[in-house]
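Please go through this chain and its backbone structure tokens and walk me through the local backbone shapes. Keep your notes short.
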Amino acid sequence: MKKLRISRFVFFAVVILLLLSFSLSLLFRNLGVISVVSSPIRSVVARVDSVVSAPFRSLGSLNEDIHDLFSTYSENKKLKKKVAELENQSEEIASLKTENEQLNNTINASSTISTQFSATGKVIVRSPVSWYESLTVKIGKDKNVAKKMLALSNGGLIGVVDDVDSSTSNIALLANGSDFSIPVKISTASGDLYGILESFDSEKKCFVVSNLNSSTDVVEGDSVVTSGLDGDTVANVSVGSVSSVKNSSENLERVVYVKPTADFSDISYVTVVGD
């Protein structure tokens, strides 16, 4: 009886082992099939994922490009602002340099003149409407400026003081074409001769000198300065150089055109001189 039970137990154990072995065999076989089947599926899924994710990758790249674009725009804007500031500073420096040169030229010109009075001031009023007629300088009676004193700028004669108040003076410019009567001296190879600066020829852009006291030949380039022979104006103020001569039957009636030493188009500082 005991032997029969043992035999049955052994039989069932063997059957169970066989079933377990068969099940495991089927499982491993199925895993191989699944692997074979899933391989192309994974490939298809990977391709689909690549296609689907492509727009999102493009959006990410586009977002980076837009960010870079805005960064570049912001940097360019800052650079343009800095360039504009540098240009403004450069213009200011150039303007100050020009004014400084004019001031030095004016001071140097007045320092070579033997005069009892000299005062330099900045131009504060010059209207475009009367650009070549008059201007206002910030020096007046407080600096002992008086009417009929000569005005210099850019190294040469530009006008005459015609009005003065406590702190400013109005300068009548010689370039306005009006009649003046300033005695001048022309230095020639044959000696000096004298005449009167009467007006300004706007077409030739030259002073007009007439009433010469001598028939001495006058040629282009001869130097012209004030003579001071009227007793009111200072002598040896640079007027300009001879540009041309209009001859007549009488040498004493000749007209001499004089190119100004000063530049009337740009006047920043004026020196007033007098005795």
Remarks:
- The chain is about 40% helix and 30% strand.
